[in-house]
Automatic annotation (TrEMBL):
InterPro entries: SBP_5, SBP_5_dom. Pfam families: SBP_bac_5. GO terms for biological process: peptide transport. This is ABC transporter substrate-binding protein. It comes from Marinomonas algarum. GO terms for molecular function: peptide transmembrane transporter activity. Residues 23-231 form the Solute-binding protein family domain. PANTHER family: PERIPLASMIC BINDING COMPONENT OF ABC TRANSPORTER.
């Protein structure tokens, strides 16, 4: 009997966290046609166990971490990749130091995002597009290319100045210490980011927190800068919630009163051209006023055995997560829409 197709990898935790194991049997009478494989087994494995089982030929498809890509390739395993389009972005807490657009834009210019991306992900990420979506052209948006002189001028224009030792002082003449919070997943990103801010003249207090304390810190606004990752691959209503809703990891940007009206205009429209133009206007506001700043767009990787042909789902799965676990590439001989 032919071995079932195994889909493994630590990223493939589905709904049963206790078992982490699912066995799917083909329905030969399915109305869309006979599925490609007789049996498909989905199981949760650690990254180390996944690599061992793929090398043995026991696992066929797996999401893999970027730091193991070279290991898979050296062992002759096919590796496919796609931008995650879930950028790591920096939220500005706007009730204190970053209440002004000048201050937020200054930080955007003060960061060398290319170096941040290269050092944090060892070449396995790109500089994020400076808008809400990652899969659109950047024309018409400010890329905030590294320009520390322009950053300094923006801060001085709002009354800040540098001390003789090179530290930034606020309009009261007090030394500025920025609180940077992030989840424990972003250790390296936080270190590189803090180093760049310190080189620019800020003292930085970095706090890496587990998931629940991190969300509590965000809800209580106990930070100046926070690193989060959240996107929805083109679902405009989810972008609305991320930008103008009350989501814990969202921007909660209520200052610009035109944004809710623009989102409402999209919701009431059936004209694709009008929707795209209106969304472009929303992105320009976001890009200019910077309630948050997209920094890095990590790359997702999956390993495939010779027994399967698969690709990342166009526009992602669920909330836009690029994965190879999708009906078109895993279960169908060809797309049911063809």
């Amino acid at each position: 009997m032919e071995r079932p197709i195994y889909l493994g990898g630590d990223a493939l935790t589905l709904t049963d966290k206790a078992q982490g194991f699912y066995s799917l049997v083909r329905n030969d009478d399915w109305y869309l046609g006979t599925p490609k494989y007789q049996d498909v087994i989905i199981t949760k494995l650690s990254p180390q166990m996944t690599s061992q089982e793929i090398f043995k030929g026991n696992v066929d498809v797996a999401s893999i971490p970027y730091n193991l890509v070279d290991l898979y390739k050296e062992n002759g395993v096919k590796v496919i990749s796609a931008p995650s389009n879930h950028p790591i972005r920096m939220i500005f807490e706007r009730s204190s130091y970053f209440s002004s657009v000048n201050a937020r834009q200054a930080i955007a210019y003060a960061l060398d995002k290319t170096t941040l991306s290269e050092l944090s992900y060892q070449g396995h990420a790109a500089v994020a597009r400076p808008g809400l979506r990652q899969d659109l052209p950047s024309s018409g948006l400010n890329s905030y290319e590294y320009n520390p002189e322009k950053a300094a001028n923006l801060l001085m224009a709002q009354g800040w100045e540098k001390s003789k030792s090179g530290q930034w002082l606020d309009h009261k003449g007090e030394t500025i210490t920025l609180s940077l919070v992030a989840s424990t997943d972003y250790l390296l990103v936080s270190k590189v980011l803090a180093k760049q801010l310190e080189s620019f003249g800020f003292s930085v207090d970095v706090r890496l927190l587990p998931a629940v304390p991190f969300l509590n810190t965000l809800s209580k606004k106990q930070y100046d800068l926070a690193l989060v990752s959240q996107s929805h691959q083109g679902n405009i209503d989810r972008f609305r919630l991320m930008l103008t809703g009350n989501q814990g990891r969202g921007d909660q940007y209520f200052e610009n009163k035109s944004l809710p009206l623009l989102f409402k205009k999209i919701d009431q429209s059936t004209d694709t051209v009008e929707i795209n133009l209106t969304f472009a206007d929303i992105e320009k506001i976001y890009n200019s006023e910077l309630p948050s700043l997209p920094l890095i767009n990590p790359i997702n990787y999956s390993a495939l055995s010779d027994r399967v042909e698969a690709g990342f789902t166009k526009n992602g799965v669920a909330m836009g997560i690029p994965m190879v676990l999708n009906k078109t590439t895993v279960f169908f001989e060809k797309s049911p829409n063809e």
